[in-house]
Amino acid sequence: MWLTSKIKQVLLVLKPGVVTLKYPFEPRPVPKNFRGAPHWDHHKCVGCGACSDHCSARTILVRDLCQELRVMLYDASRCTYCGKCADICPEKAITMTERFELATDNREDLTERLELFMLTCKRCGRCYDMENTNLIERLDMKGYRYDNLEQRAFIRKTTEQFDEKMLKKSDEYKRPTKVEA
Amino acid sequence: MLSNIAKKFFPRSLWVYHCNSGSCNGCDIEILNVLTPYYDVERFGIKLVASPRHADVMLLSGGVTRPTLHLVRKAYDAMPAPKLVFGIGSCATGGGSWFDTYNVSGGAEKAVKVNYFIPGCPPRPEAIIYGVALALGLVDKKASPMEMKQVEFPIDMYQMNKAWEDRNVIYQLLND
């Protein structure tokens, strides 16, 4: 009988009731250990660049504007929210927040830009510098310190983003030297 | 402005066409998740259609790979005129981890004009619903660019310092 089967269906459906979430009108909490958008605490950050070295999507860019001023640019457009940066941060300056409502019509809305004040070493007069020891990367890359903030990418010698002027500029860039006493 | 256009042209329902352009299927599963009774986007009138000719909205997932580039453009051209494109996932938004590799064009923006980006790897079903609700004008935009500074630092401080050192005689004496 089709009618009894329909009644059965209705009774079956009545048991769980309405399960649909009223999401955009009611907030929905995230599950435990959810990794949302990372957030930088600029008071804690020391500018070591470990997050940019370990970022798998290479979306954290570091650029020194002058000796004391370092810009760290996080461009969330290609971030995979893996949480490596938060794990590696020695000062625990990066936290994975519970923010997931990131939909936007402009990709610039997703950026976070930090301007850090770097202290100089009293002995050598330089800022904290991290050498790129990987030989293969040293062949290919011009160092993470000369990231191209305009194109949102590394300056690699092997891609079409490679800009000779920028390379020349970064080659000719000299740190201001202090006079030895 | 876009939300006004959306309100004007799609007062009742959005018919979406799901276009996979070399995605890892993570975002596609989340899109299917959105259509289940639990999240039920049909209450907004959103319906999945099989052909781009019936669609108002293209849900584009995956960083557009080289073999699919012209196919994505073809599907975009086949859609009737008031159309929106949603880039879903990190790959469609900015190219993902493969943004500069030889076989990926680096994001959906390189292929077609994308109106809304929904980042996430994969985005939660709620995030996709939020993006669609943003296009419909039901919710407000929450993302905004952040700029943080430790100190206000004048960029020409080095030149000033250099000029001061040049003026000062003792540095010259020390040089000698």
Q: What structural keywords apply?
A:
heterodimer; A: 181 residues; alpha+beta; Alpha-Beta Plaits; two-stranded antiparallel ribbon; elongated; disordered C terminus; B: 176 residues; alpha/beta; Rossmann fold; 15% strand
Task: Give an account of the 3D structure.
The complex is a heterodimer of chains A (181) and B (176). Chain A is of the alpha+beta class and 181 residues long. Chain A has helices at residues 2-14, 50-54, 84-88, 135-140, 164-172, and strands at residues 38-40, 60-64, 69-75, 94-96, 111-117. In chain A, a hairpin with a 4-residue loop joins strand 2 and strand 3. With 176 residues, chain B is of the alpha/beta class. Chain B has one domain: Rossmann fold (3-Layer(aba) Sandwich), CATH 3.40.50.12280. Chain B has a five-stranded parallel beta sheet with strand order 2-1-3-4-5, sandwiched between helices. In chain B, helix 2 (26-34) packs across helix 5 (125-136). The longest helix of chain B has 12 residues, at 125-136. Chain B is elongated. Strand 5 (111-117) of chain A pairs parallel with strand 6 (146-149) of chain B.
